Structures are given as structure tokens and as C-alpha cells.
Amino acid sequence: MRRLLFKIQYDGTAYHGWQVQQNAVTVQEVFQNAVEKVFGERLDVKGCSRTDSGVHANEYYVSLDTDMDIAEKNAVLALNTYLPDDISVIACREVSLDFHPRYSCKYKQYVYKIYNGEIRNPFLKSYALHYKWRLDEELLNREAQAFVGSHDFSGFSSVKCDVEDTVRCVKAARVYRENDMVYFEVEADGFLYNMVRIMVGTLLFINEGKIKAGELPEIIESLDRTRAGKTAPPHGLYLNKVVY
Amino acid sequence: MRRLLFKIQYDGTAYHGWQVQQNAVTVQEVFQNAVEKVFGERLDVKGCSRTDSGVHANEYYVSLDTDMDIAEKNAVLALNTYLPDDISVIACREVSLDFHPRYSCKYKQYVYKIYNGEIRNPFLKSYALHYKWRLDEELLNREAQAFVGSHDFSGFSSVKCDVEDTVRCVKAARVYRENDMVYFEVEADGFLYNMVRIMVGTLLFINEGKIKAGELPEIIESLDRTRAGKTAPPHGLYLNKVVY
Fold first, then answer.
1. How many CB pairs under 8 A join A and B?
2. How many CB atoms lie within 10 A of CB B96?
3. Is pLDDT above 70 for B108?
4. How distant is the Cα of A96 from the closest Cα of chain B, in angstroms?
């Protein structure tokens, strides 16, 4: 028995997130179908994270166990043949049998893209939030530092979130601009449901003066979802890096 | 009566090209619907070019005649409110009543994007042709110079093309690379049906040795469609510039 770990990339536009669901197409299901064609059997594939409907992945990891003696490079080529154009396998390597793509992860980085041009860019419709009022990326970068550290992020998660431990350690947060595109990058040992999207919605509220500069530490401490901003839409969000 | 000229931009993925057709959604139809909402009547809108199904426009011009005394800036804002996210109006200006977006055009520039990475990029699925064999952009740039000048391009147009005069003057052609993306840019006073896509398909044949370097002038002169390459797919093609 070998455990293979695949690094993949996907455009989440057409998918209801990673995890298999009834009556909705997910990345996991489509990946399992391709695996079945290549490996000749229905194998359980494990992902590194649940992602929401419409969320993208620049880097995502999937593992499966097989007895097949297939070269890693050939597994990549074969899977890409059977996967649709919006999912790509980038690499494959063998890992030890106690490796788990989700639980072996040290930290993850998400990036949220905001297109800050006055007029929307039709080519970014599914790839960045369009926000036409000028973003003050320097202010938002300073404010975002309040997220860094170990905090109970209950106030930054959706009611759907049923985990018991809501403390997460944010290693780094950064807001920066490249021309009309503003990026929010955040690294943590884990993320609660909708956590990054609520962080982004809260930063937008700060930009609009609906939340005052300096108030973020208190809002985090309050554990009160209603004091944070709205949940930003999924199509600007990318799982960007997974570190093992 | 005033003639307004709109500069627009669109992602052609969801459309069967510009021109209104039975049983297929086109950019013209969707634009006319938005115009009807803003101007209160069904107006004839004229485009600068027919574009094929799936082809994009970084820059496209549309005109209409109206008696309405609407400020140009407000017309832009209002149309963007009623247009879907994959079509944007960038600007509007009044032009003289003898201006025609198609016939007043001095020249147009198209660009064709080829993603030349070994593994496909899921985010470029609808925005660039994926071609995994290494492209020799310097060779192709030299070869593409054969397109420049006034030529009868009958051999580089589809049978659907029923125009009488098939001579077009190509002002410039260029192949260049930025990392894994290779661009073919071509400027001409006009283009026959599928002309750019057949030029690209022919360059790919040169890259593959199916057409020898140096043969292009003879292939153009032959006026024989079967000697040129395949018609490259539409999703890599962008109308990039229209000069009046």
C-alpha cells in the first residue's frame, strides 16, 4: 500500500466547493471520477480543506491509497487527461502512511483579491470582488495586524460552524496593492467556516468608516458575529499555499 | 439627433459572438436590452466588428442614435447597471452623424494568447489556448513577418466568408513571450472571417515542423485554405484595439 499526495489547482466557479454533496457537483466528486478511470477502482480521496462554493485553489492537496505501481509523473499525466479543464494536477509524490493532507498541515495561506477599478473588469467576474470605492490599502494593512496572534475567532465564523475549539493562530496578515488589484493575504494554522471572507467584509467596513480604525481588537474579543462586517463573496477567495 | 459611441469590453465565453442571431445569446442582443432600459426604446446599435462565438474584446466600439439629452458619463453608469458582469461600458463620447463604428475604422489590432506551460492553468481555460509543446517565439516572430503587407488572404479565411474583396493590408505582426504566455499580435485595415485564428493555427504548424520555415509567403500566395494550418480555437482571441 502506498499513499500518494497530489498537488492540484482549480477554478472553483463551477463547483460547490471541495466536499462531496448530494445534488451538487464538487471538486472531490469530479476528482474521484478521474481517479476511478486511472486506478481502475473507486478510491477514497482526502482533501486538505473544505472550500466553499465558488472558492478557488492555487494550491490544494489530495491524498489516496493505492496498491498500483504507477510512476508519480504518469499519475499526473493520466489524471489530467480525465479531469476537466478547470482542475489541474500539478505534481504527485509518495508520502508516509501516517500523512493526512488536512491534519498534517502546519499552516495555510489564503488570498482574497479585490479589483479596485472604477469600472468592473469583465474578465475578473469570477476571479476577484469588484469594489469601486478607493481602498486605503495602507490603513487596511495596519488594521489587519489585529488579526495576528492566537484569538478565539467565533465572531468571525458563520453559524454553520460547529467546531468546538474556535481558537486559531494567525501567523501573518497583509493588505497590499498592485495597480488596481488589492490583495488580502492571511496565514494561520487553521480557519473557521467563512473566517477569511468575514475578515475581508470587516476590512471593507473599516474602509467605509462603518467600523472605526482601532476597533478591530475589541470586535475580535467580543466574539460577536454581528459586530464584524458582512461575509465577502466567495469568488475573490483563493486557497494559496498549504505548508506541511 | 445625436450619435453616441461607446467603448466596451467583454468576456465572450458565454456569447455567440457580437451579432444578433436566432436562438443564441449574443453581445449585441444583451447590449440592446440594456439600451432599451436606459433609453426607453429599442434602438439599433451598430458594432465595430463581427466577432465569433467565444472570442473576447478588450476594446470594442458600439454606436447608437438618440434624441435623449443624457450626459455621456451617466449613460456609461446607467448601461453598466443593466449589463451583466461579463460586459462593461468603459467610456462614451458623441461623434458626428457620418461616423460608423465599422466603416470609419482605420485599423484594428487582435491579440491571440497561448498559454505555453507544460500543465494547463485552470484559470485560463476560457482565456488562452493551452499548448504544451515549447513554442519558439523568435522563429514564429520572424515567420509572421510574411503576413505583413497587402495580400489576398483567401487562403486564410473560412468558406463561410462571402466578401468579394479578400485583399487586406496587414500593418504589423508580432509574436512575443511573457513567461509562459505567448502572444500573437496583428494589426490590419480589416480581417476576413477566421483570419487571425487560421494565422495562429499556421504558426503552430510551423512550430511543429508541419510547415517549413520560409514557406509562408508561398502558402499565402497559393490562396489555398488547405495549405494553411488549422483554425485555432476562439477562446484565445481578443479584439484588442480599434483605431479611428
1. 48
2. 9
3. yes
4. 26
All residues of chain A having their beta carbon less than 8 Å from the beta carbon of residue B118 are none
How far the first Cα of chain B sits from its last, in Å, is 22
For residue A152, what are the CA distances in angstroms to A141, A148, B23?
A: 21, 12, 55
Taking each continuous run of H as one helix and of E as one strand, the counts in chain B are 5, 10
Q: Do A11 and B123 touch (CB under 8 A)?
A: yes
**Is the pLDDT at A160 greater than 70, yes or no?**
no
Nearest to A85 among B10, B86, B125 (CB): B125
Average pLDDT value for chain A: 95
Q: Which residues of chain A does B60 touch, with a Cβ-Cβ cutoff of 8 Å?
A: none
At B23, the pLDDT band (50, 70, 90 cuts) reads: confident
pTM over 0.90: yes
Of B86, B88, B122, the CB nearest to A85: B122
Tally of residues, chain B: 244
Q: How confident is the model at residue A23, as a pLDDT?
A: 85
Q: Which residues neighbour A81 within 8 Å (Cβ) at sequence distance 6 or greater?
A: none
At B115, which amino acid appears? Y
Nearest chain B residue to A119, by CA: B90
Residue ranges in A18-91 assigned as alpha helix (H): 27-39, 72-82
Strand pairing category for B129-130 and B181-188: unpaired
Using an 8 Å CB-CB cutoff, list chain B residues near A56.
Answer: 123
**Interface predicted TM-score of the whole assembly (ipTM), two decimals:** 0.92
